[in-house]
């Protein structure tokens, strides 16, 4: 997949940061010494950790150079480093008090193995804290499936599930094997979009990205217009002219 676009991602910085705040607020540790943020993106989630734990040694890691450049620019007081969490070899320390990951691991396969690797980075008594978007039942993903399978797009790609997300029951079973004490919950955010185009702008940096990466500029324009026409029919305009973007997310914390 082509590199991420931090500017596109941060068009909705407030909305994208709130789940990090909510996840960090559930971490019970008072004075952790060492924290890692896996999939830190442009650093907004790492800054949440810095604000809560200003005396901790905090490292944000991501595989996107664009995201890391923006993170280092915006938060020079925090250390950021390149790391590919999907690789077989993890060259990370294993003495963290908190392993944090916000809206990242849905891009990485084999969560059974991945979560065990993340838990192994922790000290005994450390906390694994993870948030995952659960969008597969939302209209936008049905729209993507319909468009990429349509006659207009069949020459570019066949539909495949772009995200790696298990069921809450499957996460429960994994956590019950690797954690002494854990909790799972979901929160649905109702984001206020000014218009239907904002929904397209939101997903251009996330769910639509794997498809856009396969197309040239002209093809992207056609593809996005096809998606936009469907978005108009699937997302209701509210009385004040705004659009609700319903966005469920799965959270869990687990103690080693």
Layout of helices and strands, plus pairs?
Layout: H1 6-9, H2 13-24, E1 34-38, H3 44-52, E2 57-62, H4 65-74, E3 79-82, E4 96-102, H5 111-119, E5 122-133, H6 139-148, H7 168-178, E6 181-193, H8 196-204, H9 209-212, H10 217-234, E7 243-255
Parallel strand pairs: 1-2, 1-4, 2-3, 4-5
Antiparallel strand pairs: 5-7, 6-7
Helix pairs in contact: 2-3, 5-7, 6-10, 8-10
Radius of gyration: 19 Å
Helix content, binned percent: 25-40%
What's the shape? globular
Unreliable stretches (pLDDT < 50, length at least 5) are: none
Strand order of the largest sheet: 3-2-1-4-5-7-6
Mean pLDDT: 92
Number of E strands:
7
Descriptive account of the structure:
By secondary structure, the chain is of the alpha/beta class. The protein is 38% helix and 23% strand. It contains 10 helices and 7 strands. The protein has helices spanning 6-9, 13-24, 44-52, 65-74, 111-119, 139-148, 168-178, 196-204, 209-212, 217-234; strands spanning 34-38, 57-62, 79-82, 96-102, 122-133, 181-193, 243-255. It has a 7-stranded mixed sheet, with helices on both faces. Strand 2 (57-62), helix 4 and strand 3 form a beta-alpha-beta unit. Helix 5 (111-119) runs parallel beside helix 7, helix 6 (139-148) packs across helix 10 and helix 8 packs across helix 10 (217-234). The radius of gyration is 19 Å and the shape is globular. It starts with 5 loop residues before the first helix and ends with a strand.
């Amino acid at each position: 997949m082509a590199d991420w676009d931090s500017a596109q991602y941060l068009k909705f910085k407030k909305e994208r940061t709130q789940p990090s705040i909510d996840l960090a607020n559930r971490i019970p540790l008072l004075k952790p010494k060492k924290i890692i943020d896996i999939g830190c993106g442009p650093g907004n989630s790492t800054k949440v950790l810095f604000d809560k734990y200003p005396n901790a040694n905090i490292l944000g890691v991501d595989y996107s150079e664009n995201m890391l450049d923006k993170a280092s620019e915006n938060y020079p007081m925090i250390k950021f480093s390149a790391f590919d969490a999907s690789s077989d070899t993890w060259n990370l320390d294993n003495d963290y008090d908190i392993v944090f990951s916000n809206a990242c691991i849905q891009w990485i396969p084999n969560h059974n193995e991945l979560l065990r690797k993340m838990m192994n980075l922790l000290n005994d008594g450390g906390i694994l804290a993870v948030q995952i978007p659960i969008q597969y039942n939302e209209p936008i993903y049905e729209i993507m499936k319909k468009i990429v399978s349509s006659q207009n797009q069949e020459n570019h790609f066949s539909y495949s599930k772009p995200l790696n997300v298990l069921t809450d029951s499957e996460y429960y079973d994994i956590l019950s094997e690797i954690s002494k004490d854990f909790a799972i919950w979901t929160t649905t955010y109702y984001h206020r979009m000014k218009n239907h185009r904002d929904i397209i702008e939101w997903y251009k940096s996330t769910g639509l990205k794997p498809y856009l990466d396969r197309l040239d500029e002209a093809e992207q324009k056609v593809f996005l217009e096809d998606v936009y026409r469907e978005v108009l029919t699937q997302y209701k305009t509210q009385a004040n002219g705004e659009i609700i973007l319903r966005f469920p997310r799965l959270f869990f914390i687990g103690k080693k």
